[in-house]
Write a structure and sequence with these properties.
370 residues; Alpha-Beta Plaits; alpha+beta; 2 domains; nine-stranded mixed sheet; 17 strands; binds zinc ion; five-stranded antiparallel sheet
């Protein structure tokens, strides 16, 4: 049902466009042109301006031919680096980069699955409800596009984010939320040889706080890490300032709050003990999501998997994606595999037959909305 040659051609053309985060102008223009060529009216929001990027998110609503709930299909336009001068190499059923950059199948594979599915339903006259296509900017490194999307234009009830890996039919239904943690420990400097007793050692405060802290894997759905610690000037000065960055994640919001509170308390207790000061800031990067088995979107997916002849595999993920943001905005969403492999590396690759199956799965999802 899917036009394999056209899909591969489009994949090669689009991965040939440089599209690093916040530098998606050419990609956005190319996608708008393709949507217009199909007879649709893509619209670009002002997220680019708000995040200091070249392009905004693209929203394109395809009017339905039957009265069923609207659905959203999303993919992101940006890639991680090294991503300049990408050259895809077709090797039998596999497409890889030439080894010097990422392939960019993350997330061009999602984009082409959506575009090819739209062409297919049009050509085959497949009945469907309203479809809202969303191509986001700056997903990598902060989900900035999804966070700044113009949600006033989105009325879809269900979202399918084509941006995951695994066998086709794999969907992530659970993902953690994350707090990013910034701590400044302030002590008091003094000469380390002449009058150390006049100083308050920020390094000792930090060490004491961290050594008594629960870190690493807290439980099956909660993790925490101190990733960065900076401070000190000279060995003969009692250190008066240490800056620390860390994170905590959990698929359970309550546990995340508890873990972040625990980390804050450890710093506060240590500072009180040694007579220093703490500035502790936690920033919620994205909310968690947890789609239960009896959610309406799971009915659509079960029907679609049967229609496409793929096993539906539900998964929990440890990462954050646009899917977290969409769920936080009230659009019940899952992250769907396109077959991408070894993403964020120069070994990134994808099998053509997987991508064809993933595009077919998109058509099946569209057919299964009722
Ligand atoms: Zn991605």
């Amino acid at each position: 049902m899917i036009n394999r040659d056209r899909l591969v051609k489009e994949f090669l053309e689009l991965t040939g466009i440089d599209s690093l985060s916040k530098k998606e102008r050419r990609m956005a223009d190319a996608l708008k042109a393709r949507l217009k060529a199909m007879g649709y009216e893509p619209w670009e929001d002002d997220a680019g301006k708000r995040i200091g990027g070249e392009a905004g998110n693209i929203i394109c609503t395809v009017k339905g031919t039957k009265n069923v709930p609207a659905v959203m299909f999303a993919a992101h336009m940006d890639t991680v680096g090294p991503g300049t001068g990408k050259k895809a190499v077709v090797d039998g059923d596999m497409i890889r980069s030439d080894g010097s950059t990422v392939l960019g199948g993350d997330d061009v594979s999602g984009i082409v699955c959506i575009l090819e599915a739209l062409r297919t339903i049009k050509e085959k006259g497949i009945e469907h409800g309203d479809i809202q296509v969303v191509f986001t900017v700056a997903e990598e490194g902060g989900l900035y596009g999804a966070k700044n999307l113009d949600y006033s234009r989105i009325y879809a009830k269900y979202g399918f984010v084509m941006d995951s890996n695994g066998p086709i039919g794999t969907v992530a239904v659970k993902a953690p939320s994350q707090d990013k943690i910034f701590v400044t420990v302030e002590g008091k400097s003094a000469h380390a040889g002449l009058s150390p007793e006049k100083g308050v050692d920020a390094i000792r405060i930090a060490a004491s706080a961290i050594s008594g802290m629960k870190l690493g894997r807290i439980d099956h759905e909660t993790t925490a890490n101190i990733g960065v610690i900076k401070g000190g000037r000279e060995t003969n000065i009692v250190c008066d300032r240490v800056e620390i960055m860390g994170e905590a994640r959990s698929r359970d919001e309550r546990k995340l709050e508890e873990q972040t509170r625990h980390m804050r308390e450890r710093f506060e207790q240590a500072a009180a003990e040694f007579g220093g000061k703490i500035d502790f800031r936690a920033e919620r990067l994205y909310p968690s999501f947890n789609i239960p088995d009896d959610a309406p979107i799971m009915d659509i997916l079960r029907k679609a998997a049967e229609d496409a002849g793929v096993p539906l595999v539900t998964e929990e993920t440890g990462g954050g994606s646009d899917t977290n943001i969409f769920n936080g905005k009230g659009i019940q969403s899952v992250d769907v595999s396109t077959g991408m492999q070894k993403v964020h590396s120069t070994e990134e690759c994808i099998s053509i037959s997987d991508m064809v199956k993933a595009a077919g799965f998109v058509v099946s999802i569209i057919r299964s909305v009722s």
